[in-house]
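Practice problem: Glycoside hydrolase family 10 protein
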Amino acid sequence: MKSLKIMILVLLIQTKIFSQQSPKREMRAAWISTVENIDWPSKPGLSDKEMKNEMIAILDNLRSYNMNTVIFQIRPTADAFYKSTKEPASHWLTGMQGVAPGFDPLQMMIDEAGKRGMNVHVWLNPYRVQKDTVRDVLSKNHLYFKRPDLFLTYGKTRYFNPGLKETRDFVASVVGEIVRKYDIQAVHMDDYFYPYKIAGQEFPDDKAFAKEPRQFKDKDDWRRDNVDLIIKQIRDTIIANKPEVEFGISPFGVWRNIAKDSQGSNTVAGATNYDDLYANILKWQKENWIDYVTPQLYWHIGFDRANFEVLAKWWAEHKYGANVYIGHGDYKISTSAKEPEWRSPDQIVKQIEMIRKMPQIDGSMHFTASTFLKKGDTLRNPLIEKEYKYIALTPEANRITRLKPEPPTNAVIAKKGDKAVLTWKAALNDKKYVIYKFPKRRITDFSNPENIYYVTTALKLEVPNADLENYVYALTALSQTQTESSPIEFSIK
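Answer key — structure tokens:
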């Protein structure tokens, strides 16, 4: 009996170690920024072919890192990287706002990412309209020229007025159209709610406060309520259209400093979500208004003002049922970085290792996709050697009613020369397919990510013909909610 207990304990320890090193489910996402052409397209005015080739290059590269999700910025400044009936095509596409390319960027992203087994989260900025008012970029059919009373300017940037009901209604209608028209995994917003403060300059919302104060006497509380209202309305809009679509927020990494609030983190950040951006993230988590939260922890482990480790633990302890993914600042990696901690990819590897030891954390999101292209093997090799060695499926959201897929049918293998083609047919609620490959022609463990060969939305896959002598293939389906079906084995035709 004693020896049996020891054996069970050893197995449990091995399972725990294995799950930390190579979990079968883990968010591995990269942001694809379109504002200022940070990631895609590389500059405005490229040909359709050039833009498409760049998108494919980004996706192929992310696939080589075993990433499973892209966060695609489709509305950076009240404009569109998709077919919108409400806002003009972005000037960061063709060079002129309102002039669309000859293809739908979001639909292409969904199609091409899906082939590579990746989900798409659409990233919208709720309030920002014009990044620099010095540049005359707004098209003449922009809402700004029809309803200038809905907008205000702070610094050089133009915004929707967050204090107006019309703003909330319009932004919610934009979200509703996207959710209805596109097969997306999630709607995503980052830290740009009320803008970061400009020293000596007050945000010009006095008239809105006087017009719609509701029950508030304190303007800061009123501003927070404005953001609460738009988050709740967007959540309701998503549920009314497609309740299986997730809603995620990627806030600035510090909710509040402990000096201001005993519930806050042990940090001394110069800005915080609650006090400066008027975003009460914890309330949204507690109220079930969001499905996941991705704090942007773009600081290194041990940083004195905002320590990555301290903040990762704080967010893990304050999840309130939402999935928690950590935002990593990969863009900081540089041999000439001022902080020595960022002079190699080791910092990112250590961060991933650290959060995997925190069971409340469900994975990572990386800023930004172009970093993975620029760094190449310098970043890829250390990640693929260990942390991202195997493919991982994305986590199921805790707050979404899960859709159970039926197993695919007619899974067969047909030999064609030196290739073999795996084909299958879709069943109810199938969105993606997980192809497993087991050595020694013996199906063993579906929980081991080492056995995952590929994930795709396609209904066929080519494999080397020679593999059929040594391996056996099996197949499962994933639903929109990332729920996995029971498996079926491929038969040789």
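Discussion: The chain is about 30% helix and 20% strand. Students who identified this feature from the tokens alone can consider the problem solved.
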